[in-house]
């Protein structure tokens, strides 16, 4: 059943928007170069034969245009760029042709739409991604500082690095060359400031995880090993609506399933697809390493997390922890490479996370 008379493709950029519309009744086409202002785009869409429906690709411009069009009474979808079909022989790419291609796909109902998060979810997602950026910045700052010292033959041997004792040792370093002293102080200051930024973001995430709409989901996810409050909150806000997946499909969404090229009787599988949400994939791959160690009874830290969850969630988390460690044992017995085994465990861990997130009454 037709949902629109005019199918409109929008090629959206930071400084310009190209629109291309197709009237399905008359075959008439409409093309316009617009400004990125939502009112300008909305006014042009309202001037087209109604009802009209628009589509644009997900990208750095975000979802503000989608929300403005929906609020203005114009239906809109945001297309997944990786799912857009383009002819192999199409060698010309312009803004107008991209808009026309989107309009044709929308007319044929061949657009795979992404799930647009609510404003609150997008804000929380920006928070956890800012924390991830700070973590990466801190790692790079520490590497620069330690490699500066290593180039001059200075190596810390007093235990684990980046502890309080290590920090005291760093602050005691002095150099005879003023240029080298200035370089060291600059790298040390960068590391300290970045660490403070990360800690402030950690506090903001912890506060939101304790009192928000995602709090019950976070408490259930924390019943699994390797998933702390920060990781659980990140998973909750990145996924959002867990009910749109199943235990089998969520691994594909995270890009944790093998790629495949099969034809006829031949079947060839390769490395994981790495499609979908890369932030969630990284969190699960890191969490999967925790299941390599033997699991017997909940630790003190795990017990504290379990205190916030229901008995049903604790029981399912306990079963998941046993199962995931058993998978590690199976891969080790088969002499699988640890990095390969860990990705397989991460794929199964995704299913257990889905099971806990969708647990009713949990």
Query: SSE order in H/E notation?
Result: EEEHEHEHHHHHHHEEHHHH
Helix content: 40-55%
Provide mean pLDDT, rounded.
93
Give a count of the beta strands, DSSP E runs of length 2 or more. Answer: 7
**Tally of structural domains:** 3
As residue ranges, the low-confidence spans are: none
Rough shape? globular
Strand content: 5-15%
Main-sheet strand order equals: 3-2-1-4-5
Tally of alpha and pi helices: 13
Rg estimate, integer Å: 26 Å
Structure class: alpha/beta
Main sheet?
A: 5 strands, mixed
The N- and C-terminal alpha carbons lie at a distance of: 40 Å
Give structural attributes.
two-stranded antiparallel ribbon; 13 helices; alpha/beta; 3 domains; five-stranded mixed sheet; 52% helix; 362 residues; Nucleotidyltransferase, domain 5
Summarize, please.
This protein is an alpha/beta fold. The protein folds into three domains: 6-107, Nucleotidyltransferase, domain 5 (2-Layer Sandwich), CATH 3.30.420.110; 119-212, no CATH class; 217-357, no CATH class.
Describe this structure as you would to a colleague.
The protein is of the alpha/beta class and 362 residues long. It has three domains: 6-107, MutS, connector domain (Nucleotidyltransferase, domain 5), CATH 3.30.420; 119-212, no CATH class; 217-357, no CATH class. It is built from 13 helices and seven strands. The protein has a five-stranded mixed sheet. Helix 1 (38-46) crosses helix 2 and helix 4 packs antiparallel against helix 6 (178-210). The model has no long low-confidence stretch (mean pLDDT 93).
